[in-house]
Structure formats: C-alpha cells, structure tokens
Amino acid sequence: MKGLQMKKFKTSLILGSLTSVAAVPFVAASCGSKDSSAPKIAELEQKISTLESQQSSNAELKKLVAELKTKLDTIKTWDQAQIDQLKAQIEAQNNAKVSTRTTKIALLMALSAQEQIKTEKEFLEKSYPKLAQARKAKEMIAKLEAEIAAKTKEVETKTAEKVAKEAELTKAQADVKAKKEALNKANEAKTKADEVVKATEGSQTELTKVIQELKASINKFKAELEKTTDEAKKEQTKATITTLEEQLKLLEAGKGEKLKVAQNAQTEAQKLVTQASEAKTKAESSVKEIEAQKTKLEEELSKLQAELKEKTEQKSTTETEYTQADNATPDSVKKLLASLEAIEAKIAELKKEATPEELKEVEHYLAVAKELERVKGVEKEIDALKNDEILSLLQKRPEFKKFILENPEFIKSKRWVDSLERLAKKEGVKDVELKIEELGKKDPVFEELFKEEPTLNEEFINDPDSFKKYIEDIKDGLKEEEEDINSKITNLKDKNISREVKKLLADNPEFIDVVNQNPDLAKLKKFVDGLKKKSESKNNS
C-alpha cells in the first residue's frame, strides 16, 4: 500500500510539471534542441512504461498514465521554432528581472552618491571661495536670462497693445471728424429750414392783409345789399359776395398749410442737429478714453523697457563677476567640479529612466537609512551627556526621547538639558518613594527598619543616590552571604550528600553546620522532609 502511494505521488509530480504553465518554458529550455531533448523524452517514455506495468489494478493510475502519454506526444511534436520561441521568452523574462534588479541597485548607488557629491561640492566651495562666487554668479546669470526673456516678451506684448491702441485711436479720431461733418450738414439744413419758416411767415403777413381787405369788401357789399332795393342789383351783389367768400376760404386755407409744412421741416432739422451733436460728443469722449489708455500703455511700456535695460546691465555686470571668479579658480578644481556635475547629470538621467515605483522604493530605503543614521547621531549626543538620571528618565518616558529625536537642536541647549535634569531628579525621588514602599511591603525587615529610623525614609527621598548605595550595599551583603553559604555547602565533609539536600540547605543555611557535624542527618527522610517544609513555608511567606 505504501509503495503504491509513493508511485501515485511521483506520477502526480510528473503530470504536474507537464501540465503547469510555469513548467512549459522549463521543459523547453531543458530540451534545448531536438537532439538534446531526445534523452529526456526517452527518459520520460521509460518512466511511463514503468508506470504502465504497475497500472493494471489501479483505475486512477490508468487515467494518469493516459494523460502523461498525451502530454508526451505533444512534446514530441514540438519543432525547433517553438522551442526557440520558448527559450527566447525565458531569456526575456530573466533579462527583465535582471534589468529591474540592476536598475534598483544602480539607483540606490546613484542616490547615495548624490549626497556625497553635494558634500564634496560644499567642501570645494569652502576651500575655494571664488568657486562659490562663480557658481552664484552663474546661477544669477541663468536667473537673469530667464527674467530678461520674460521681460522681453512682456515688452513685445505691450508694444503690440500700444500699436493696436494707436490704430484704434486713429479710427476714433476719423469717426469724430465724420461726426463733425455730419453736424455741420445738420446745422446747414436747420438754417435753411429756419429761413423757409421766416419767409413763409413773411408771405403770410401780406396774405393776411389781402384777406382783411377781402373781408372788408365782402362786408361792404353786404351793407350795399341791405340798402339796395333793385332786385337785379341785389342778385349781382349776392353773386359778387359769394365769389369773394370763396376766394376768402381758399386764401385762409392756403395760409395755414404752407406755414405748417415749413415748421415741420424746421422741427426735423432740429432733431438731426441734436442727434449729430450727441454722436459727435460721444465720439470725442471715446477719443479721450482711448488717448488715456494709450498714455497708460506708453507709461507701462516705458517702465518695462527701463526694467529690461536694468536686467540687461545687471546681467552684464554679473557676467564680469563670473569671469573674474572663474579665472581666479584653479583649472584642476574646475575640472573636479565639472566631473561632479557630470555625475549629477548622469544621476538625473538615471532617475528619469527609472519608473516612479522604482524611484519611490529606492528613495524610501535611503530615507530609512538616513533617518537611522540621524537617530544614532542624536542618541550618541544623549549618551555624551553622561547623566544617568536623564538617561533613566528618557528610558521611562519614551515621549521625551521621541521629542529629542525629532528636535535634536534641544540637546545642544544647556537651559533645556538643565530643565530635563531637574525633571529627572523629581522622577528619581518618586522612584525612591515607590521602592521604599515596595521594600516595606515585601520584607518585614525593611518595614521594621523604616519604623525604627523614620528619618531614614526622608534621607533617602532627599538623597536618591544614598538610597541607591544602600540598596547596592544590601545586594552586595546578600551576594557575600550567598557565596559564603555556597562555600560552606561545597566544603561539607560528606561529599556524597545529594544535590536536592544541598539545595534545601542553601534555603536553610542555619542547618549547614549541623549537617556538617552529623552527615548521617542528610540521609534521614524525616530530616529532609523537615527541610522541605521549611523551604515551602519561607517561599509561601
């Protein structure tokens, strides 16, 4: 049964390796070519043949063997092109992994070097002040060139605005001229209308006189009609009156119509004058506004041109400073600086080639390493204080230590360190009080001691160092006592005393001398049981 399980296990492994997607490239790579694959295929055929001979009584094994044969037939049909393609895929995957790993290593080295390069450049500038002066001048020149380019663009834009405004002004002035001409024409038309009205009114005076005379004649004929008794004369007078009245009607009607037409023409002419005058005023106002805008543009342009001139002169002066500083710097130093800057450029190029994920990962590693170095440096400064009280306080109060690590400048402040020391002493007093209380609770001897010597408690609180010394003395005394007990047990006359009894004697040292004088006691069960009870009683108390 065990042998069959092992065979099934081996079969599963072979089938798994053939059916797995990840295993296909491995099989292809191991085959290499048709010639090199032949031994491996033959080996697989041999294994399948062995399994076939063992499958007669196992249905699952039969199924596995059938699947293996199918997979093996597939491998046999692979041509060299398929194998080469799979090998190429494997090689590409491996190259990609190597490339990613290489990129990260290169990035890590480059970014680490970046800090060193910065330090080297700072050292060079401190050693050669003219080098720093040249660098600052060069940076200023680059800054001025950018500012000059921007200012030149502003001047060009403002000049274009001024030209456009001048064109707008010319057009507005032409419009004013046209509006003046229109007003002149409207005034001429109005003058003529006034003259027509005046002439019409003059002719109306003459007409009124004629009408009055005609009315007088009509009235005269009417008076004669009343006096005349001659019928024929009456009829003739009536006819004359009728004719005169018709003429009167015509004259009166003509008189009002002509004057009305002339007055209407005069009103229209006045409207045209008003409109033309308003248009002229508006056009003149527009010209004034455009002239003000043009003046403002000219002022702004003049200011920009002055600034541009100033920047250009400043650039020229800075270029002179740069040349002088550069000439004063040794060529060897300039070459070294150029090499450092070339490396910086390569690092920048490498950073551009890296993916954001790679860059972020590497920068994280460096940041962690840098922070670790910084923390180590601050911790060294803390240790350099050589103040056990402060170190103890920082151990108990990690928030203080965290604050110092985040703000290392405080560790260099004497006032702050003194404050920390005072706080540490207060904390030390609290510790002493707690320890005294603990000792009293744990050991009746101490409790009795503090009762007998009440000033001792106060002395320890006021002077924590004396308390520490006292505790150390007690520890030393206990250690000496323990060593003395161990020495006595080691030097027992009877060397055959069991380890258990020796341990019990260490717990009950008052019986060591008794056992040493009477070795047989160590073999008595009652005596040993008594020692055990005493030890248990001490431990329980």
UniProtKB/TrEMBL annotation:
Compositional bias annotation for Basic and acidic residues: 307-318
Signal peptide start-end: 1-22
One Gene Ontology CC term in the entry: plasma membrane
Keywords for this protein: Cell membrane, Lipoprotein, Membrane, Palmitate, Repeat, Signal
Annotated stretches, region: Disordered: 307-329
Domain of life: Bacteria
Membrane topology designation: Lipid-anchor
Localisation per UniProt entry: Cell membrane
InterPro entries with a match to the protein in the record: VlpA-F-like_signal
Main localization of the protein described in the UniProt heading: membrane
The protein's name in its UniProt record: Lipoprotein
Organism: Mycoplasmopsis californica HAZ160_1
Taxonomic classification: Bacteria, Bacillati, Mycoplasmatota, Mycoplasmoidales, Metamycoplasmataceae
